[in-house]
Amino acid sequence: MLAFIVKRLVMLVVTLLVASLLVYGSLYLAPGNPIATLTGGRAPSPQVVAQLNAQYHLNDPFLVRYWHWLVAALHGDLGQSIPLHESVSTLIGQRIGVTASLVLLTSIVIVVIGVGLGVVGALSHGTIDNGVLISSTVSAAMPAFAAAVVLQFVFAVKLPWFPALGDGNGLLDSLHHLILPALALAASSVALVTRVTRAAVREELEREHVQTAVSRGLPRRTILRRHVLRNAAIPITTVVGLTIASLIALSAVVETAFGLNGLGSYLVQAAQNKDFAVVQGISLVLVVLFVVVNTLVDIAYALLDPRVAIGSRAQ
Amino acid sequence: MSIPVGSALPTGAVPEEPGPDTVATPGDPRPVKTRLLPRLGVGGWISVAIIAVAVLLAIFGPLVRPYDPNEVTLSYANVGPLGGHLLGFDGAGRDLLSRLMVGARTTLLGAALVSIVAVAIGSSLAVASAWFGGRLDTAVSSGLDVMFAFPGILLAVLAAAVFGPGLLAAGLALAMAYSPYLARVLRGAALKERAMAYIQAGEVQGFSSWWLCFRHLLPNISSLIVAQGTIFFGFAVVDLAALSFLGLGIQPPQADWGVMVSEGKTPLLQGYPLEALAAVACIVLVVSAVSFLGERLQERSTGAQR
């Protein structure tokens, strides 16, 4: 088990190194020289050029420059936004809270509704199960931006229960502003989690150890808790974890749709304005979060199901 | 050995060349099509019908559209159905139905190109690493592991920042982000096929790797390739529309379903939802149909019972 975790952590570090190299190197794929890209095509003064040359070590070889950038990034220095004259780390710090609360709230929605509906669907037959299947099929086909537009129309324009745009002030108001975005972000993921949960619980119900427990006359509740849900938890945890990881990038769409001032919507604005230092910084943060969550899911999976670690050793 | 059921590609038919074809002859002489279609079920037929309408729209929509999709009549902004304008007008007073019809081509063609490029990259990586194995396989697999670190949307946003917004940069980035997933699935299938006796017989008889890969291995995993391509076509419609919605994909005033959702958002908040909701409905219908059909094809090609 320990060997498996160490191996995953080594892979994590390698992946992060290559990913950061890609994020950094993409600047040099841009047509034109790096200074033009960094300044977004505006004509910089000679002082700015000299400052950029020094700051980005533009006269050094590529790998040396990358190394300087990486070391600075590890110290929390992601450079300066040139149009805004502000540190990228500060700009990220101001916005990461919104994204984090959006992803957190969405995860809660996904776990509660997705796992809940999946278990209900698996345990029931006929109308209820069909209802679960149909509703999950419909919401699976709802891309986040489509769900956002529909929710805005129904629950902000037609029924003015929720605000359509903006962040809100204070805890309760912010939460009120986050409910529709979280539902929009959750829509298609809930469907996936529902389906996996339903299939996993169904599969466990048919297992011999469950049949044995039923024939021994154990209470239904005990069977469910001790024999079915525990075993079904393995695939469910994995799919929930991977879905939550995918929300990190997808939040950009929902934040833009609802005018939330988070990392994702700021990344999109920065990409439109060619504010390249910000694009690099936010991309790096999002990739790191995504990879770290994925690794944690892998390790959790191995801890829940020791056969995974053994299987990977056998390969 | 039998040709996988559900293959719609002509390459899945009987190989004509002499040599190892004795092993590759399909066990069932009936044309593949007659076995696939009747088993689609009601949902499958509805999906096929929706996709057929969408494809017809994509091909002929720009030719038969009732009005000029870019003709602005500001006095008609957000006016509902009126006279010959069956769906009314968008926020700039352009005919909505015409824009939807023209937009079908941009949306679907873009997604089709993304899916084709992704399938091409994914299946070449899969077949190459399954065929040669060893170091190449290890290198490709570890390369793919790194590529999994980039969510498609993020890679596309990065590409749009570097190369400027538009279909080309965003689409290529999406194709690159999809290809590791395709490569992983197809590599498994290619490995299985690689281990089959007929491939080894072909190698012993001295057929070249190219010949065996292109005439035997690829045709025999083609049903899985088609299924995966269909599923990723659905993803591509969604992701390209999302990028256009973010202003990083197809640029206005070009008519495109994603652009229309984006342009229709402000009128929607003012109480004129028709443009945004019509475009959303088109996207959701096509994507549901495509993913339903893709999953069916997938089940058929792997023989999985769910």
Number of helices of chain A: 13
**Record field, number of beta strands of chain B:** 0
The residue fraction in helices of chain B comes out at 55-70%
Sheet with the most strands, sense and barrel status of chain B: none
- Low confidence ranges of chain B: 1-34
Radius of gyration of chain B: 22 Å
In helices, the fraction of residues of chain A equals: over 70%
Q: What sequence of helices (H) and strands (E) makes up the elements of chain B? A: HHHHHHHHHHHH
Provide a descriptive summary of the structure in words.
The complex is a heterodimer of chains A (315) and B (306). Chain A has 315 residues and is mainly α. Chain A is built from 13 helices and 2 strands; from the N terminus they run ααααββααααααααα. A two-stranded antiparallel ribbon of chain A has the order 1-2. In chain A, strand 1 and strand 2 form a beta hairpin. In chain A, helix 6 crosses helix 8, helix 8 packs across helix 10 and helix 10 packs parallel to helix 11. Chain B has 306 residues and is mainly α. Helix content of chain B is 69%, strand content 0%. Chain B is elongated. The N terminus of chain B is likely disordered. Classes of the chains: A mainly alpha (315), B mainly alpha (306). At the A-B interface, helix 1, helix 6, helix 7, helix 10 and helix 11 of A face helix 6, helix 10, helix 11 and helix 12 of B.
Please describe the topology of this protein:
The complex is a heterodimer of chains A (315) and B (306).
Chain A: H1 2-29, H2 34-38, H3 46-55, H4 62-74, E1 80-81, E2 86-87, H5 88-123, H6 127-140, H7 144-158, H8 171-205, H9 208-215, H10 220-257, H11 263-273, H12 276-304, H13 307-314
Antiparallel strand pairs in A: 1-2
Chain B: H1 21-24, H2 32-36, H3 41-64, H4 96-132, H5 134-147, H6 152-163, H7 167-194, H8 197-204, H9 209-220, H10 222-245, H11 257-269, H12 274-302
